[in-house]
């Protein structure tokens, strides 16, 4: 099953009450389920379980859109240099990343033939990753992913003959797998200003967005606490207040 992926207009920004809801859902979801938890909070008509069935490139695109919608396009990231340990800081323009991901995520399935059989491969989703993650061996996990996202002659890979046919076309299958999942990762090159070392790194959009949500929720709790203590207002009343008005009241308390 695959859910209908909303456009960026179907996502709601993670502000105030919705920010708290996203934080609550994601806190109990764990690292693996965090992307689906964040997106289900921002898109109430789709559950986390439905987001688990969406192809990974589409999920990464929607997370990037959600971050842009909620907190803007400018993004500052930090990481240590793997060679000298210096702290690297770099700016990322999400608008450019989203434009690239939109191009890469248009292809969600590819067909090919081999030995008289017709194969069709779709993008993997988080349910597929969960099944593959249960395998102890990396090659076994890779094979599970290939079997789960591939059909032969219109049916799932379910028999030994089906598996043997896929094995015979494994090189082509891996090429298509790589082609389909170009948008599943956000990668870029960074150079260390201290030692000149250059390396490729990736941006885990779900983890980055979750870090920002936690930080902003902490700030929001502080605002609610100050206003409630000063004026006796309820949390609901404070969260329903427009942010500029809330900020003005905070200025008055702190002056």
Note down, in words, how this protein is organized.
The structure is a single chain. The chain has 255 residues and is of the alpha+beta class. It folds into two domains: 8-104 and 189-221, no CATH class; 109-184, no CATH class. Helices cover 55% and strands 17% of the residues. It is built from twelve helices and eight strands. The protein has helices at residues 16-27, 30-42, 48-51, 56-71, 94-104, 126-133, 138-149, 160-168, 170-180, 205-231, 235-239, 243-254; strands at residues 74-80, 87-93, 109-114, 117-122, 150-152, 155-156, 186-191, 198-203. The strands form three sheets. It has a four-stranded antiparallel β-sheet. The model has no long low-confidence stretch (mean pLDDT 91).
Concise synopsis of the structure shown:
With 255 residues, this protein is of the alpha+beta class. The protein contains twelve helices and eight strands. The protein has helices at 16-27, 30-42, 48-51, 56-71, 94-104, 126-133, 138-149, 160-168, 170-180, 205-231, 235-239, 243-254; strands at 74-80, 87-93, 109-114, 117-122, 150-152, 155-156, 186-191, 198-203.
